[in-house]
Design goal:
Strand content: under 5%
Radius of gyration: 25 Å
Shape: elongated
Low-confidence stretches: none
Number of domains: 2
Largest sheet: none
Number of helices: 5
Length: about 150
Amino acid sequence: MITVNATMALTIAVLFATGFYLLLQRSLMRVLIGVVVLGHGTNLLLQLAGGPPAAPPILGTVPAEAIGDPLPQALALTAVVITFALTTFLLALGYRAFVLVGHDEVQDDIEDRRIGTQSLPTASLADPDDEVDEAADDDVESQAGR
């Protein structure tokens, strides 16, 4: 039976909360730090789920009950590799954005703004004679071009 240490559970919860909060930011550097923090939280969670340290999984050297489960360690190693790959990709993406734009903040998309300002349709959706609101589209594009 595996018992969970409350301090480790709280640490993992804080790492996950911080990581997800940083992932929702507009700055690519904060997103990068969020991915790294989330990766560390995942590694801690996998090691905590694996239980306490045990004997190496070599048959014949120790009784079968004392052998540790190698799966959490393999999953943690996989999580490290995935976190490293995402970190290098986001570093390259942030560097390229900084070179091209001069900052790493992700801007709103014009299409997202247009959809956000649309009102709900008043006619049935099956009516083919509905016109697209050109004035609303022009207003959104003018706001985006500030």
